[in-house]
Amino acid sequence: MSEGEKLVNSTAWKQYRIWDGRIFYHNKETKVSCWSMPPDLRKLRGESTGLDDRPLPDTSTERRNAFQEFLEERIDASWDWRRVQQVAQSAPQASGVSEQVQRQVFAELLSMALRKSEAQARAKARNAAVALERLIEERFSDPDALGTSYEEAARILGDEEAWTLIKSEVRRDEVFQNVMERLEDKHQRARAEKRTARVVRLQRLMATDPDLKRARTRWKDAAAVLARRDELQEEDPPMEAMRVWTSMRELRLASAKDIDLKSKVQNEFYRDERKRRDAFVLAMKEQAAAERFTMHTSWAQLEEMLFADQRLLGMREGEGATAMELFDEFLEELKLKGPEAYAGVEPAPPPAVQVPKEVLFKAPKVEVHVHLDGSFDSEVLFRAAQKHLEELPVQVRTPWDGKMLEVREAIRKCKDLAQFKSLVTVGKDVLGLFPILDCFYVFLPIVRGRFEVLEELSYEFCRERKAQNIIYTEVRYSPFEFLKQCEDGIADESQAEEAVKAVCCGLERGQKDFGVLVRQILCCIAAQPSWSQKTAQLAVQYAERGVVGLDIASGEMHFEDAALQAAHRQATDLAKHALGVTVHAAEAGPGGNVQQALDLYSASRIGHGYRCLDTEAYEAAKAKGTHFELCPSSSVSTQAVQLKHWSEHPIRRFFQDRTSCSINSDDPAIFQCSLTDELALCLEMGLTLQDLRWMTLEALKHSFNLEAHLKESLAETVTAFYDRQTGA
Fold it and tell me: Is the pLDDT at 674 greater than 60, yes or no?
């Protein structure tokens, strides 16, 4: 074998010769074969390979990657660019890499280092929280330790490592409260699982034990027996045992009580029947005293006289004597005794005038007591509520009694407009004043701080005025009730002026588009004296844009509270020289509040005032020409007035005495009524179209700061309409 062949065979290459003498080479490792000598062999033999063996220069990507690997081994979240420059000066990996690329690599690595640092911090915080949770569970897992407060836990665990790992006091408190709530739930579930078996055991014991099943056994005696039998389970007080004992005792006494109850129910039935019978007989006597019921009156005629009288309807609900039987008996008595049969009975009022509701609808109307927030358009409110639902507060606190009302979830449950209306209205329900005021605080958060919504609602108010043919309105509101609120009250009271501006803009556009006349009265809120001075200032400031008066609303507690009284009096003193003053009085409070409204606040109008009738305050107000703003529907719903039939309403007295008054809707959206509906109720009270004409003109006469030429023009419109209806 030649030297060349030996050299070749010492490598992975093998040299072979074929039959024709030609030589080829085969690499036993790579399995490559070739006819010409491979460059590796040429190099071993000292011959030229014919190839350029010089290494290729690195590409820009390779240089960048090399610099990145070099920097990645050293960098952490504390590095800055200056430090990178210092390291790169002596690093061969930085050669050939531009400063711009170096900055880019540094930014990427620094971002990664920061994320890594944050992840490590979060993991550490999680581990610390888990360690603290385990520590708290170990120390306070006993049921007796569930009452431990955070401050007590801090004293007990303050030196533990798991406690000190969490630096934030707020975070430690949060972890502590979560663990304690979890432990409490755990113990409650455990108690609940045991409760059923224990209740059954106690029931069996109390039903069989001679000392416990006696009907006259006192709880004191029963507790002693249960304690001897170790059945109180160390409870203090033993509520479970007490509940079981009470229920068993009530079951034993049930049969005896049933007998007493039947007797009581029977007596109540007879009493109710007697009351219904006497009331119906009185109704017939009243008709006889009014000379409408005579010996020749038929049953059908009496039914027509009393068709809307609750006393006749009450007889139809009873199970005793029928109305027709009582009619026959009274008719016989009338024939025998004559006028003596109804002696001493007041005559029934004249029957209600049958006026088509269409006439009342078309009548030009004046309203001086209507609340803007009680007249909001439900569709506009519902749209705004859906749009801003997650921004609404979870709960709000009422200023009159401090209770919390659900808002966000209550509105969330309203899937359509009908459900929303049922939430924010009361209709004809009789609830009382403050439950109705609560209704406002459910929907007011939708408007608060959203002045564009307030402007739209004010505009829609004018549309409703036009639809009801109300030619002049004085609408009242508190600008502070439309401001965004926080836990401590109003977030920014300086925004009150923005609320007034929004109402002004909406009303001005509405008056222009619908051709109605609307003025404003700003309300001081009885339980919010801090708002009153600013409210009065805004009222005077915006007199040129339609504010004509000041009111004190939402309760009458200020008449009895000197501090509240002083704040509201300062406000009315500021406003009374430029504006009219009206005060809610004798609605839910005593009649004497009307006298205080006149003396303390210089009021020229009274909101409601029903309870002042037959008092010196009423006579004084009448003598001074004070105007009463009367609201039929709201007076019944708020329980300011309680009656069986509208003919008993004290509003009739104001008209009979010709005491200056007007009929108003108060909160038409809340009570689902209109001013037309209120006028229809007046006719049910026995009032006439002439009464309605007089009342409307009185409202115009006592309007606040209405220009003389407008007042005269509106009065002519009212007079002309009623003249046409009465044929004058």
Answer: yes
